[in-house]
Amino acid sequence: MALSLQLLLVLCMCLLCHKVDARNHSHQKRLQRFSRSQKFESVLLMRDNEFDCVDIYKQPAFQHSMLKNHKIQLSPTFKTATTQSRPSKTWKDFKGKNMSIGCPPGKVPIHRGNMMHQTNSTHFVNQFPGYAKLHANLLDTNKETTYHGGYAEINICKVSGVEKGQYSLAQVYAHSDAAKDLDIIKVGWGVDQDGCYNVVCPGFVQVSSELAFGAVMTPNPKGLVSESYVYIGIEQDHITGHWWFVSGKNPIGYWPKELLPHISNGAAKIRFGGETASSLDNTSPPMGNGILPEGHNSNSCFFAGLRIMDSEFHIQEIKPEDITVYSDTNPHCYGLLYEGYQGELFRQSFFFGGPGGDCGV
């Protein structure tokens, strides 16, 4: 069965210490090889016949009972001047070869499958299968403070071996205090045939007429999908309180604050990394490209240019003393290798992933 990588958004509303070593030269060489070999053609392919241009006021977001009288915020009050480690070419890739024009003003591209699933949906929780094995390898903020954003450049990796009833994701997270009721936003790429992503469950208000969620990420003509990246930013508007998804300097849409009461004044944590899940009778799927980040010359997937927006709404590079590596399974399944600052091109970055398998519950 053919599976595809997709750009995913997740809205969830639901009841280790690590030694940081000095920068390693072989690690640097691997990153330099990556930068020289990047190919950006056709990273995201969106086929015209799979998407409809829907009136912005008739998009699935407004099926949500709390958004019946919601007034759309067409643009954030902040300037999307998020600094990146290198010039972004992902916005061109987001559009895709076959949707380079996008939708006309006042309309947004919606995947027909999303519209069908959303229309047939009876309740939010029905969109999530009963995953019993959940695992994550993450870089986790550990300061007791408030965050208003998180940013990363995520390596797009080819994932194989993900079956129905499983998922494998690479994401930036913003969420509330785990000791209380959880509100969680996740944005990234992944493989999943089930679940409540993108606009399948109402809540995310899209304003971009060009980017279509659920778009398939396909290898460029030379098959170098692992040598591509996507820029992800989650940023809270300090005036309206809405949480925006931005790609580079492009605002894509937002989660209204009324849907996220526990992070309406900011998030307790920002996290970066991979997540997998499977049913109880199945093994855990691969994470990243399935390669463990062993040694200093890893060929694993990676995150780069890690940043947060602090309690004063200032964008800051993460600091090693303010983060912790989190892993909830054995090191033969998944791993995360963080070595701090990796030069001007990649800044704060880490490798992650692994083959999965019998990883426990």
UniProtKB/TrEMBL annotation:
Signal peptide from the UniProt entry: 1-22
InterPro entries named in the record: Glutamic_endopeptidase, Neprosin, Neprosin_propep
UniProt KW Glycoprotein keyword: no
Keywords linked to the UniProt accession: Signal
Keyword Signal on entry: yes
Neprosin PEP catalytic domain sequence ranges: 127-360
Residue ranges of the TM segments: none
PANTHER family: PROTEIN, PUTATIVE (DUF239)-RELATED (PTHR31589:SF233), PROTEIN, PUTATIVE (DUF239)-RELATED-RELATED (PTHR31589)
Protein name: Neprosin PEP catalytic domain-containing protein
Organism: Canavalia gladiata (Sword bean)
